[in-house]
Design brief:
Strand content of chain B: 15-25%
Largest interface: A-B, 35 and 41 residues
CATH topology of chain B: Rossmann fold
Order of helices and strands of chain A: EEHHEEHEHHHHHHHHHHH
Structural class of chain B: alpha/beta
CATH class of chain B: Alpha Beta
Distance between the termini of chain A: 90 Å
Helix content of chain B: 40-55%
Largest sheet of chain B: 6 strands, mixed
Strand order of the largest sheet of chain B: 5-6-7-3-8-9
CATH architecture of chain B: 3-Layer(aba) Sandwich
Order of helices and strands of chain B: EEEHEHEHHHEHEHEEHHHHH
Radius of gyration of chain B: 20 Å
Number of helices of chain B: 12
Distance between the termini of chain B: 31 Å
Largest sheet of chain A: 5 strands, mixed
Number of domains of chain B: 1
Shape of chain B: globular
Radius of gyration of chain A: 35 Å
Oligomer: heterodimer
Structural class of chain A: alpha/beta
Shape of chain A: elongated
Strand content of chain A: 5-15%
């Protein structure tokens, strides 16, 4: 029993009170004698533990060996467990010890048991799991479809009674998703523009086609890279935030509290986020494209001596206006998808922290994947639009 | 009923001297503790009582070393609490209000966690020790594999208690040990704590608002008000102390009902006038 305060690490008697076990001849039999502090604290020093295990090996628990535990200064449950396991979980033939230490050992002896067997995974379990998980993709698709359907209904409700909508939340989300994302998207866009301009300028100079850098940068940045880059950044930034926000609300029962008050999650949580991102996303994508074009313009000036004035005048001729509309509408779709996926995984979080982390990860990975898939779809569908031959 | 009192000459496990806690915020400074003194002796069960915002939990966190006082000194087992280091679990056990179980681990892994982190003891010894502690707090080995999210509130507290006790620390801190438990579980938990206190020779410091638990377990009660400990002593001493907070807390309606459950008549022979006053006050309301 821990009746003494544990010794401090630099206690002078640390050496003396180390847990020990020795063999001693007395009255015609070989006694096992334990002494020192048999506590977790004393045994947790690597040296003490090493010497103790070696000493224990020297004193094997023979059937007829008597044990003397009276010299033990302190015995806690870990020490008692060590002794008990050393005795192969049975009382030795003869035992001398203090009554207070006996109480600890009694408890350990009473409660030591073999752990409940781990449930074995059988083939039928695996088959069942497969059958269960197989259609899970279907469940996900069904839930996601339900979420979209609910969104449409909520937008209908919004149009019917616009004064009832959560406008404050909407404007707050717009600020969070849009305004605060401007610096990071501008920086990334600028650098990508510079890199792309330098890379292509090397090739173009070989063919003497320097002026085509305007076409290459303009078309690729406005039509593809700007929207996708912005969407990937926003998926990582806002998609994860949506999932974490709603997930924490699940963990702390806030979602249930809302439902009890009769406030629908779809109308109050999902719709403002989806609408805010649907509006913020095209603007951010245009902003990213602008920053990237600016970077490309400077790099073109430095690498190919194409003046910014020429760049700006050539840009409208190289990139038809339809590209901008395509990019903006594509971005709006990305925004809706990112917000919906974020909300979906947020709602799916179970009330524990592990599930929250997993949900956030899946949300980001899924939304980035979906964004790229949908972008490919757009590229195929609109391949005839926005090019000047 | 009340426990045997720790003799006054037993060594001090926790010493708090001239403690100041000041929270700074843009609105100004808020003094929570002002020249607070408190010492906790080995073997006693000390309850911290006080109104909301009197810094009970803050004091507990300062004893744990999770927060540092603005001024003054806290010593736990003769050392500043922050220096207990990796062996902290062997010195101080803490039962957090909501259990603070690691949700990624099973019950058994939660209990075994402090021992496993030593990376020294063999796995079977740790598993057996954790199973013993699991049963000491009144759970069955069949519950070892469950995850914390599958447990009821009372079971979470029991598992958290087993985890706090895995290395038999001499000092156990409890934050609202019976909050959120139904009366039966709360009584069971009090019995468990009393038994463990007796068997393990623990020093217990607890923050509680539950008067039943308070009278049931405490050997000493320390009342926090006016930014310091206004009185620390047995329930009888504390109730006799003239202070508006104590009057409101112990002699209000809830306090009386709790005390009626005590068959000691503590209140009757200390402040009969107060009791009358409180009773009429209650009927007026």
């Amino acid at each position: 029993m821990p009746t003494d305060l544990p010794p401090t690490a630099d206690a002078p008697d640390a050496e003396r009170s180390q847990p020990r076990v020795d063999e001693r001849e007395q009255g015609g039999s070989q006694w096992g004698v334990a002494s020192g502090r048999w506590t977790a604290l004393a045994m947790a020093a690597p040296q003490a533990w090493k010497s103790l295990t070696e000493q224990l090996k020297m004193v094997p628990p023979n059937d007829d060996r008597p044990w003397d535990l009276r010299p033990i200064e302190q015995l806690d449950h870990i020490g008692a467990q060590l002794l008990w396991n050393h005795w192969r979980q049975a009382w030795p033939a003869r035992l001398e010890m203090d009554s207070q230490h006996k109480a600890v050992l009694d408890q350990v002896a009473q409660y030591t048991c073999s752990p409940p067997p781990e449930p074995r995974v059988t083939w039928s379990d695996r088959v069942r799991a497969f059958i269960h998980n197989g259609p899970r993709m279907m469940f996900v698709a069904r839930d996601f479809l339900a979420l979209i359907g609910q969104l449409v209904l909520d937008i209908g409700r919004l149009l019917k009674a616009p004064h009832r909508a959560p406008w404050r939340d909407f404007s707050g989300q717009l600020y969070q998703f849009g305004t605060t994302a401007l610096p990071i998207t501008a920086l990334v866009g600028l650098l990508i523009g510079v890199v792309l301009a330098y890379l292509t300028s090397q090739q173009l100079r070989q063919y003497g086609a320097e002026t085509f850098i305007v076409n290459i940068l303009g078309l690729s940045l406005i039509r593809e890279l700007g929207p996708v880059l912005a969407a990937v950044l926003i998926a990582g930034r806002s998609g994860s935030a949506i999932t974490a926000q709603i997930g924490v609300m699940r963990v702390t029962d806030e979602l249930d509290a809302m439902r009890v008050m009769g406030i629908p999650h779809g109308f109050r949580l999902v719709m403002p986020r989806v609408l805010a991102l649907a509006i913020a996303m095209p603007l951010i994508s245009m902003w990213t494209s602008m920053a990237a074009l600016f970077g490309g313009m400077i790099a073109a000036d430095l690498a190919l001596d194409i003046s910014p004035a020429y760049f700006l005048s050539a840009l409208p001729r190289a990139v038809p206006m339809s590209n901008l509309w395509l990019a903006m509408s594509k971005s709006a779709v990305f925004g809706i998808l990112i917000a919906l996926i974020g909300c979906y995984f947020g709602m799916k979080v179970k009330p524990n922290t592990e599930s929250l982390g997993r949900g956030t990860t899946s949300s980001v990975v899924t939304s980035i994947t979906i964004v790229i898939l949908v972008d490919a779809l757009f590229a195929v569908l609109f391949r005839g639009i926005g090019f000047r031959f | 009923m009340m426990m045997n009192h720790a003799p006054d000459d037993s060594p001090e496990v926790v010493q708090i001297r001239k403690l100041w806690t000041v929270f700074k915020s843009p609105e100004g400074e808020q003094v929570v503790h002002r020249d607070l003194d408190l010492s906790i002796r080995r073997g006693e069960v000390l309850s911290l009582v006080g109104g909301s915002g009197t810094g009970k939990t803050v004091l507990l966190r300062q004893i744990l070393g999770l927060e540092h006082p603005s001024r003054g000194e806290v010593r736990v087992l003769g050392r500043p609490p922050g220096q207990l280091g990796a062996m902290g679990a062997a010195n101080v056990g803490m039962l957090f209000q909501h259990g603070a179980l690691f949700s990624a681990f099973s019950v058994l892994d939660n209990i075994a966690f402090p021992l496993r982190e030593l990376k020294l003891l063999p796995a079977d010894l740790i598993r057996d020790a954790a199973l013993v502690k699991l049963q000491m707090v009144g759970l069955t080995p069949q519950q070892a594999g469950k995850s914390p999210s599958d447990l009821s509130g009372g079971m979470i507290k029991r598992v958290a208690l087993a985890r706090a006790l895995i290395m038999d620390p001499p000092l156990l801190l409890l934050d609202e040990p019976t909050a959120g438990l139904d009366p039966e579980s709360a009584d069971g938990f009090c019995d468990l704590l009393r038994g463990l206190h007796r068997e393990l020779g623990l020093t217990v410091v607890m923050v509680t608002h539950d008067l039943d638990t308070l009278f049931d377990l405490s050997s000493r009660i320390a009342v926090l008000a006016d930014q310091r400990v206004i009185v620390a002593g047995t329930a009888r001493d504390v109730i006799a102390y003239p202070h508006p907070f104590i009057h409101e807390y112990f002699l209000g309606g809830r306090g009386q009902r709790a005390m009626e459950a005590l068959h000691e008549g503590v209140a009757a022979n200390t402040a009969p006038g107060d009791l009358e006053a409180a009773r009429t006050h209650r009927t007026e309301r």
